[in-house]
Structure formats: C-alpha cells, structure tokens
Design a protein that fits this description.
Blueprint lengths: L2 H6 L5 H4 L23 H13 L13 E4 L15 E4 L1 H10 L1
Antiparallel strand pairs: 1-2
Length: 101
Amino acid sequence: MTCGTLLAMPMRLDHALRPQPMPDHRVPRHRRPDQRWWSTPEWRKLRRQVVIEEPVCRICGVAPTTTADHIVPVDAGGAVLDRSNLQGACGPCNSGKGAMA
C-alpha cells in the first residue's frame, strides 16, 4: 500500500473513543460493584448521624466534622455499617489517615 491508498481508506475511530473496561484484577477494590456500600441509603443515614452527633473532628479536635471515618478500615475487616466502628472526622484528617494505611 502506498500513502495515497492509506489516506483514501475510510477510517473508523469510534472504537478508540469508547472507554474500554479494565480487567477485574486491575480495577481497584473500592471501585468493584460489590464494594459500593457508600452509595446505599443505610450508609448515608449512618454518615449523617455521625456528622450530627460528633460536630468536631475526633482526630484533630479542631475542624468541623464533614465525614464518617472507619476506625478499623473496611479493607482490614472493620464493619461497614456499625456505628461503634465510626468516628467523625474532617476531610483532611480522613484523607490523611487513609494515606497512612
């Protein structure tokens, strides 16, 4: 084939623009469909309860609580929807705690 022949051929790029799914072993654990507990009504209700009951971050003790933090991480076997495994935390403290794990 010559350059002229290649340029004259119709090109279909729509397949390249479609997002391709990653194999399951490469999908981060928290992104798998069976791990979507954070979008359930039970989690939202419990999270709201923690934020109301604990208005100040339990980790730094200064900032207002904006998230519910698992004391024992879910990946380490901590209970997801157990109030005794949750504490109020500000966003930076919760993110920093997750980065240390």
